[in-house]
Amino acid sequence: MKKVLFASFESLPFIKTGGLADVVYALPKAIDKSKYEVKVVLPLLKKIKEKYYDRLTYLDHIRVDSGIIHEEANIYEYVNEGIPYLFIENDHFFYRDDVYGYGDDAMRFSFYSVAVVEMMIRLGYYPDIIHTHDYHTAVIPALCKLRFYRIDEIRRIKHVFTIHNLVYQGEYDKQVLFDYLAFDYANWEDGCLRYKDYCNFMKIGITFADDVTTVSETYSKEIQTPQFGERLESVLELRKDDLYGIVNGIDTDSFDPKTDKIAKNYTQANYLKGKAENKEALQKEMGLEVNPDKLLVSMVTRLTFQKGVELLTDSMDWILMNPNIQICVLGTGEQRFEDALRYYEDSNKGRVVFYRGYNEALAHSIYAGSDMLLMPSLFEPCGISQLISMRYGTLPLVRETGGLKDTVEPYNEYTGEGRGFTFGPYDAGSFRTVLDYAYKTYAGKRKDWNRLIKNAMNYDVSFALSARKYESLYDNLVK
């Protein structure tokens, strides 16, 4: 049985700031347990410690001496839904209110990465494969191959590195490599740890992993171009034979309209009644006019440039010319977008509502009660919201980029095929054209609209197929 260790900085149900947590939670659950022993390692962050500390089992104690870092840590274990989670406790680095955003993040991520390797040595636990995720853990393959390679069990480990979002790379002064990670200066001089004249964690992960994956097939191609490569396209081009795009799924137990805590549970068999009741409940909860004939269009997102929020705010006056469209937005982010949405809510009570922040229960209600979900992203490595919305029979309207292109088949009015609406160029005109088309389909071709809902709900958004593809990678690395 092959052993696979997932190394990440966040995972549900313990801590979440974005889609990374969803993947690190759902993918290990989907891996075939008859063939693979899967564990996950996480830092024992403050919010995790406050909620779960009394349930953790103490395993051992380690000391991390790495450059100028001299710290100690405790190792704990907790089994959640059949998956053993290992936690590294160090309050100096991890007992903080937020997950990221500190001036010493480079030291925090470096300590954690070295601690993962020291943990394996201390416990005598040597996985066949370490699957690292995003730049926070990207240096682990290099640590194993350049610093701890004299240990036979470490040297034999294979590495898979998954890029969840190439924008965030972990760019730091080159001294991080020596002061915190204790690499040999020769590895800087020969170029393998260098990116221009600084340290780039993402580049190191791409360089030293045996296989590199990203979270959709289209995104794997996009990031090899200057438009989406974020200055690493040449590095990715060199790894193109080992670069794989595997689309994400979602945890279909957590997101299931049949069992979710929503106003009315439903399935494909009774979705018309179920969605109608959830729509009414959502309209009441959010202070929108209760009217089944209004097209209720929602967004559940970070309010950032990446998510295409400007296409919505730049189009609000145009959208509101149609009295039969309602807008509901849940999220927080850039001030300009929050201010714009607050303005439109204040001046259009009953038609526009903006909930600033994040509320998990409300998000589920929005997925269940909306008619359509907007994701007009500038770029989107995979996207989770469009998968959830299809699971609940809420039709996604997306831009054709990354995982959105791979998962949302556009409506074909001649064949009735499709499970949403899509547009190509990133501009307000293209966005408005497809939104108008969607509205006319909703208002004038309700049979087609309902067929699209069925198509969306029948689409497999689980991790089952993706897990088989990851297993194939694992098998090719470890015979």
Can you walk me through this structure?
This protein is an alpha/beta fold and 479 residues long. It has two domains: 2-249 and 464-477, Glycogen Phosphorylase B (Rossmann fold); 271-458, Rossmann fold. It contains 21 helices and 17 strands. Strands 3-4-5-2-1-6-7-10-11 form a nine-stranded mixed beta sheet, sandwiched between helices. It has a six-stranded parallel beta sheet with strand order 14-13-12-15-16-17, sandwiched between helices. A two-stranded antiparallel ribbon has the order 8-9. The chain is elongated, with a radius of gyration of 23 Å.
**What is the CATH-assigned architecture of the largest domain?**
3-Layer(aba) Sandwich
Overall geometry: elongated
If helices are DSSP runs of H or I spanning 4 or more residues, what is the number of helices?
Answer: 21
CATH C-level label of the largest domain:
Alpha Beta
What helical percentage do the residues reach? 25-40%
Strand count: 17
The description of the largest β-sheet is: 9 strands, mixed
Gyration radius, to the nearest Å?
A: 23 Å
CATH topology of the largest domain: Rossmann fold
The overall average pLDDT, rounded, is 97
Task: Name the poorly predicted regions.
Answer: none
Overall number of domains:
2
Secondary structure category: alpha/beta
Q: Strands across the major sheet, in which order?
A: 3-4-5-2-1-6-7-10-11
CATH superfamily of the largest domain: Glycogen Phosphorylase B
Instruction: Tell me the span between the first and last alpha carbons.
Output: 11 Å
Portion in beta strands: 15-25%
